[in-house]
Each structure stands twice: as structure tokens, then as C-alpha cells.
Amino acid sequence: MDLLKKFWDNPLIKKLIIGTGIFLLIIIFLMIFVSCSSKGKIYSYNEIEKILIQKTKTAYGKDGNLPSLNQKIDISIEELVNKGLVKTINEYTQDETTSCSAKVTIYNNNGYYLYEPNINCGEKYKTKTLQDTLIKDSLVETGNGLYKVDDEYIFKGDNVNNYIKLNDVLYRIISINSDGSVRLMENKKNSENTMTTWDDRYNTEKQYNAGINNYSSNGLNSRIKDKIHNIYEGDTYTDDVKAYFINKESCIGKRSINELENTGIYECAVKSESYPISILALYEYSRASLDPNCTGIVNSSCTNYNYFTSISNGFWTLTADKDTSYKAYKISSGSVMKSNASNPAYLLIVINIDGNTVINSEGNGSFKNPYIINMGK
After folding, report:
1. Which of these, 148, 241, 308, 319, is most buried using a 10 Å CB contact count?
2. Residues 61, 64, 69, 73: is their CA dihedral positive or negative?
3. At a CB cut-off of 8 Å and minimum separation 6, what does 93 contact?
4. Are 165 and 373 in contact (CB under 8 A)?
5. Are 256 and 232 contacting, i.e. CB atoms less than 8 angstroms apart?
6. Strands 145-149 and 152-156
7. By 3-state DSSP, what share of the chain in percent is helix, strand and coil, each rounded to 5?
8. pTM of this prediction?
9. Looking at the DSSP assignment, which residues form a beta bridge with residue 275?
């Protein structure tokens, strides 16, 4: 022991031992760092989907081989890898044990190009689509949630997880249509949306500008139809957002305040031509209530257990009054009001998107954690 103590007390030897130890620690640290660096970042599947969208859009966005109007093409990940645009899924995840396939579908939707990724790693991961997720998460037979009604799925109740974001704009999911498309309505007015009349033309019955409550007749448009078209044709929506909008007919039939059915038989008796955006038909508000006493459209029970009552802005519906030539229906503080068409209210835009639209893995449809459409951003 004395010999070791004497050996350690030698300043030169002590410095040599300490220096050697520090050197070895540095070597070990560098080996660990190089090992981690060589592996690179581990990407989540959502991040990989975004990369697939971004790289495909960059490489094919100006390509002459893009699909023609309303057609689609599939780009396999093998093609993207061979062109040096992306890595394999296994390289991104650093998981060599899982077999995955992947592709990007480019769809020419009304002249706007939509890029939808699809990754399939079996039980490990599959790209989430909106329709499948809604049915899995929200389908119920009682209480708040998504109900199957004939060949549609409809959100009913006042506490439903039906929030979704598209390009940072928050929407409420109204329904899954019979063709599998999903119907959304803005949760609140957008910055470009000012108050507007339903119509303010001269009415011969009233002998002043009370408005004419025909949405469209004999080639003549109401003010509200013109406003809807102006919103779409203006700069409210970017091209990559318009790529999601599906052309759909709108229910523009008139109804009497005393008619009781909330199934759409009155409103959908007359339909407009297909167009990418619209606004709510009146029956869509009433049928969202879970109160069994909600019959008709002005029954106060319809405000119960109905998520539309939480939308504070007074907004127009497409539906006009059958018993007059100058009144239309709006929803104000959750209740239906029959109002002169010349009065102002907001427009809350309704859109329809493909049920196979890709959404992020995170999100449960709540206000704080909405579903998010994966646009690759």
C-alpha cells in the first residue's frame, strides 16, 4: 500500500493517469456520438407521410405526366427511392424487421392537384383515413356521437368530437355522406367573410327591397349564391386547399315553418348544380339534436343536445320560406329564425371532402385536439 501511495503521490505519474483517463473518456464519447450520428434521426410515420407528400409535389408538381382532369395516378415509393427523392421506410424508421409498402396518389380534382400518401406496415402501422377513423372513434347507438342513419353517418349531440383542421382552419364534421365523402362546416366565420343579405332585390309583394327568396331560378341567382361563388373564386382558399373540395349538389328546396320532418325531404326536393362549397341546409341543424321532442324546425327542443347551438354567430342557411316570397331561415344563438332575406347574417361555409383523406395519427376530434388533415406541411 505504501508503494502504491508513493507511486500515486508522484505528480508526473498522477497527471499521466488522469490524462489517460480523460483521453479514454473522450474516445468513448466520440464512438457513441459517431454511432448515433450514423443511425440518423428516427422518423414517425406521420413525418414520413409528410416527406412523401413534399418530395412528390416537388418532383412531379410541374411534370407533364400529371393526371388529367378528375383522374389519378399512383407513384410507388420504389420509384421515389430510385429517383433519389426519398429513403425506404425502413431507413426512416430504423426498423429492419417490419415490411412496409408505400405510395403517393396524385389526384387532379377540378384542376387542382391533391397528393395523398399511403403507408402500409401491416399491424405496425397503416395510414389513417378520415372516414375509417370517424367510424372507429365515434360510432354510437346512444348518447353523443356518430349515428348510422340509413346510408349516412350523422353527428348528433352537444358534446361530440367532430372538430377537424384543414390548413389551420377549424371545421365541424357534420356527416359522412352516402357516397363516402365527409361534410364539414366552418366552426366560425373566416376573416374574409363579412355579413351579407340572403337577397336584397326589389320584391313586388312587399313593394320594397325585401329580397326574393329564390336561391336560383330561370338562370337568375340570389345574392347569397353570388356571395358563395365569390368566396370560392376569390383568394380565400389556396390551390392546395381547393384540391380537397368535392363538387356536390346543394339542397335548396323551400319549406314551411309548420312542416315537421327533419330528414331533408323538403329541402332536398330541389337541388342546385354541383359546386365545391355551399352553406348549411336547415334540416342539417335540426337532425343534429338528440332531443326526441325536436320535431319541425322552430321547436325549442331542437336547441337541446345539439352542437350547433354552441356556434354563436348568426348565420344563414340555404333554406327559404315556402309561404312567402321574401323570407329565409337563419340560425342565431342556436335557434332557427325566419328572417327577411334583406337582413344581414354571416355565411359559414360547408365543404365536402373525400372520406379517404389522410389525417395525422394524433388527434381525437376534440376542440383542444382536433383531427388534422395531413397536407404535408
Report:
1. 319
2. negative
3. 42, 43, 45, 48
4. yes
5. no
6. antiparallel
7. 30, 25, 45
8. 0.87
9. 248
